[in-house]
């Protein structure tokens, strides 16, 4: 014990890493604000709407991923294929009517992701590798069933999802509403509180008698439902769906969760943080776009933002615990 | 022998099964195997081998380097962009970038003790962006056809310079990790990092070294692929990562870390390359082979899952006690 406690102390004299981190963070935020204010056409209502709209689809999926991450199962790498598959189901079920198609989409999304969650929850399978396998399986099945072709809507009901009440896209209202619901569930219900405990310390949660497997599976079920909502909006927006409908959504959603400051190790974080992360990344991409940078630079900056937040959150939590 | 875990024999078993399946290919396609099929299998190995080795080394150390595919893409793109004058400049740029990426990630992970997943994920996103920015999002062609012909020319009937380099690096990694203490230390920090630190292993240096090796190997993999295709693709997708992860897991490394050897990784890569060649020869649609790999990876990850056994035991007791409360009591009474 002595050997272990003596070494770090001699290596690092007593100092407060939190202070340095806060200073750097403050400078970064100031720089970002200055950059934003000096960007032409950034401070317009139209641009604010554009940022919110582009944050909304990623944000809804990221809310689902937040449940997975807080519950201690790290991330799902199968978000894009799930969204693609559910989007295809949603559009091909349009002839049943919008509501029926939505219900069917949410059911299928819940089933696809919930199955993965059951394996992660009950068997403690590694979620990253399991969802890598699942993404292959979902894409394979979707390609096999659709014959690799693009699905067109069987009726026009889906177009109501593209409505813009009050000039703002419907998906923005849905994002804010769902963020509040998820936040309330996490803070105020027994399920939410157990989820934090399971994410913080799975073994302790099990020792305390919590049904770890079932809670984890339920978190993934909820995530699947939220992925399905994203799928319905994405498919409605594109008016057609194929296996590539999900695009880069997997990594966009992970970026939003991590940029919001939710640590990947679980046990901490919130839905509102994810909402902030999604808006932050959308705003950064928007500034770069207005300043004329290419898509590549936008993706690169997204990666750098995630890296900086991951390091900052890690240093701050370590600083406050020490 | 009894004490050995089944994972230790997994690479040998996987290789044996796939070799038998490969030899039996004529029985279900009706056409005999040619030396070209073997050559082609080694070409597939060259494509995935270095990524598997890169990912596998970090997994032995108890980390998981998701950025290998990002480095692979950057390496391939730099090879084409910087190597138009002379191939060596492109190769040098790619390897330098790979080493720098590994140094940065390894340094962050070792010094700040951050979990490697979020860091390498962020780097992966940033590197894909960088590759896309370098190329303007377009596939870039490589004009030096001599190099393209050279790396894929057939040597000793079954090999090409590309597959020989890949095989050679596996052998180098195996020799280095077997003969030096690095092999033992790598497994030690993967198995129990705190114990390894107390035992005097230079944990930080070893982690940085592992990530640098991983970066250089992935970049070289991307380089060789660009030379071979005569072009570089800005976004290789997640497929290379999935295939490399499957090969590494078949090669006997564990998701928990602390297990594995480069020769096992080679066996895993050969098994996956053989499977891919069988799929190609038998002309199965691509989505079927995707499903096949998904199933393979799914089975491995479920077998590797720590709570599976106890979950099954619990399920069995619950089923028994709910359906046949009498019998379970009687059974225990009989015993």
The largest pleated sheet of chain A is described as: none
Mean pLDDT of chain A: 88
Terminal Cα span of chain A: 17 Å
Could you tell me the mean pLDDT of chain B?
86
Domain module tally of chain B = 2
Order of helices and strands of chain A: HHHHHHHHHHHHH
Strand order of the largest sheet of chain B: 1-2
Give the tally of β-strands of chain A. 0
> Segments of chain A where pLDDT lies below 50 for 5+ residues?
1-14
Describe this protein's structure:
The complex is a heterodimer of chains A (322) and B (335). Chain A is mostly helical and 322 residues long. Chain A has helices spanning 2-11, 17-37, 45-70, 79-92, 98-123, 127-146, 170-188, 190-200, 202-207, 212-238, 249-259, 271-290, 295-321. Chain A has a domain at 46-247 and 263-270. In chain A, 74% of the residues lie in helices and 0% in strands. In chain A, helix 2 (17-37) runs antiparallel to helix 13 (295-321). Chain B has 2 domains: 13-304, ABC transporter involved in vitamin B12 uptake, BtuC, CATH 1.10.3470; 309-335, no CATH class. Chain B has helices at 10-23, 25-29, 35-60, 68-82, 87-112, 116-135, 145-152, 161-179, 182-191, 193-198, 203-229, 239-250, 262-281, 286-304, 308-323, 325-334, and strands at 140-141, 231-232. The longest helix of chain B is centred in the middle third of the chain and has 27 residues, at 203-229.
């Amino acid at each position: 014990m002595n050997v272990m406690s003596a070494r770090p102390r001699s290596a690092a004299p007593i100092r407060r890493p939190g202070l340095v981190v806060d200073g750097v963070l403050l400078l970064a935020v100031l720089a970002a604000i200055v950059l934003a204010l000096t960007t032409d056409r950034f401070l317009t209502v139209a641009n604010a709407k554009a940022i919110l709209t582009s944050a909304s689809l990623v944000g809804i999926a990221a809310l689902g991923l937040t449940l997975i991450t807080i519950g201690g199962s790290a991330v799902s790498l199968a978000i894009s294929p799930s969204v693609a598959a559910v989007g295809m189901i949603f559009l091909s079920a349009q002839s049943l009517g919008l509501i029926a198609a939505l219900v069917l989409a949410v059911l299928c999304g819940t089933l696809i992701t919930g199955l993965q969650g059951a394996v992660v929850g009950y068997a403690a399978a590694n979620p990253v590798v399991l969802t890598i396998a699942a993404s292959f399986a979902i894409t394979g099945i979707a390609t096999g069933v659709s014959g690799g072709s693009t699905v067109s809507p069987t009726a026009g009901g889906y177009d109501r999802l593209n409505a813009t009440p009050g000039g703002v896209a419907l998906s923005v209202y849905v994002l804010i509403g769902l963020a509040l619901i998820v936040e309330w569930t996490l803070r105020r219900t027994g399920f939410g509180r157990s989820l934090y405990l399971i994410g913080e310390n799975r073994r302790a949660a099990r020792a305390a008698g919590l049904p770890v497997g079932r809670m984890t599976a339920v978190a993934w079920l909820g995530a699947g439902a939220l992925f399905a909502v994203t799928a319905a909006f994405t498919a409605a927006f594109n008016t057609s769906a194929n296996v590539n409908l999900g695009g880069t959504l997997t990594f966009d959603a992970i970026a939003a969760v991590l940029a919001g400051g939710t640590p990947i190790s679980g046990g901490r974080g919130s839905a509102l943080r994810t909402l902030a992360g999604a808006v932050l990344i959308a705003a950064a991409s928007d500034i770069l776009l207005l300043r004329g940078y290419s898509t590549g630079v936008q993706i690169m900056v997204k990666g750098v933002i995630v890296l900086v937040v991951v390091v900052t959150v890690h240093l701050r939590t370590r600083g406050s615990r020490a | 022998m009894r004490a050995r875990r089944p994972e230790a024999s997994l690479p040998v078993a996987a290789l044996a099964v796939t070799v038998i399946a490969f030899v039996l290919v004529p029985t279900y396609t009706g056409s005999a195997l040619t030396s070209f099929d073997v050559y082609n299998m080694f070409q597939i190995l060259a494509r995935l081998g270095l990524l598997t080795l890169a990912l596998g080394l970090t997994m032995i150390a108890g980390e998981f380097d998701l950025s290998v595919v990002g480095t692979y893409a950057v390496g391939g793109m730099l090879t084409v962009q910087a190597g138009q004058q002379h191939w060596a400049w492109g190769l040098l740029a790619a390897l330098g970038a790979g080493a720098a990426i590994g140094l940065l990630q390894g340094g962050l992970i070792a010094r700040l003790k951050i979990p490697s997943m979020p860091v390498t994920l962020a780097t992966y996103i940033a590197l894909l962006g960088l590759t896309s920015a370098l190329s303007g999002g377009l596939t870039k062609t490589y004009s030096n056809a001599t190099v393209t012909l050279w790396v894929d020319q057939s040597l000793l009937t079954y090999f090409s310079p590309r597959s020989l380099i890949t095989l050679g690096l596996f052998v180098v990694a195996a020799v280095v990790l077997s003969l030096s203490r690095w092999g033992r230390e790598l497994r030690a920090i993967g198995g129990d990092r705190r114990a390894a630190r107390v035992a005097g292993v230079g944990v930080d240096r070893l982690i940085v070294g592992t990530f640098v090796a991983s970066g250089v190997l992935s970049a070289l993999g991307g380089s060789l692929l660009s030379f071979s295709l005569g072009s570089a693709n800005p976004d290789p997708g997640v497929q290379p990562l999935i295939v490399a992860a499957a090969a590494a897991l078949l090669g006997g490394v564990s998701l928990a870390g602390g297990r594995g050897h480069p020769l096992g990784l080679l066996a895993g890569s050969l098994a996956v390359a053989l499977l891919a060649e069988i799929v190609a020869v038998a002309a199965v649609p691509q989505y079927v082979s995707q499903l096949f790999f998904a199933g393979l990876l799914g089975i491995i990850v479920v077998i590797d899952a720590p709570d599976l056994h106890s979950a099954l035991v619990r399920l069995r007791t619950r089923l028994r006690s709910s359906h046949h409360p009498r019998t379970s009591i009687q059974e225990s009474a009989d015993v």
